[in-house]
Amino acid sequence: MDDVQRAYDLAVASRDHAYAPYSEFRVGAAIKVADSDLIFAGCNVENASYGAGVCAERVAVFNMLAAADSPRPEFLVVVTDADPASVPCALCLQVLAEFCPPEFPIHLANLEGIQRTVRFRDLLPEPFQLESHEH
Ligand code: THU
Questions:
Q1: Atom 6 of ligand 1: nearest residue by CA position
Q2: What is the pLDDT of residues 34-84, one digit of tens each?
Q3: Which of 2, 49, 118, 119 is the residue whose CA sits 20 to 30 A from 101?
């Protein structure tokens, strides 16, 4: 089984753990680490205080950062039940921007499988960078 399929399966499995009683929109994500077999998954976790909820993509990124010695992501898979497959939100892209290059592949999937692959830069061409505001 190839790495993308393995990540897709882990994202689907993590989506089953989504805690989304408010939106009922369940999301799973998985990040493959470069030069490693490691894949870190995440699901969305909502909260009665809505703003405290976290997206699946950020949970996957944070899992990677917490556990991987060399957290260089190779690609991301995002799974929902939406058709067309949905893209990561801007907050998650901004978080990803710290750790991935512009060409970073993002596989957009639903329960039928991967529907489309985009590059990070297609979704967020100009992430905020603190350096560009320092003098
Ligand atoms: N959500 C994600 O997990 N990832 C996204 O990229 C977009 C939205 C979650 C947040 C919330 O729990 C639910 O989907 C509805 O917005």
A1: 88
A2: 999 999 999 999 999 999 999 999 999 999 999 999 999 999 999 999 999
A3: 2
pTM (predicted TM-score): 0.96
Q: Which atom of ligand 1 is nearest to the CA of 22?
A: 12
Q: Work out the number of other CB atoms within 10 angstroms of the CB of residue 50.
A: 9
The correct CATH number of 3-123 out of 3.40.140.10, 1.10.357.10, 3.30.530.20, 3.20.20.70 is 3.40.140.10
Q: Which of residues 20 and 131 earns the better pLDDT score? A: 20
Catalytic pick among 24, 46, 57, 103:
57
Q: What is the Cα–Cα distance from 110 to 74, expressed in whole angstroms?
A: 20
Residue 134: pLDDT above 80? no
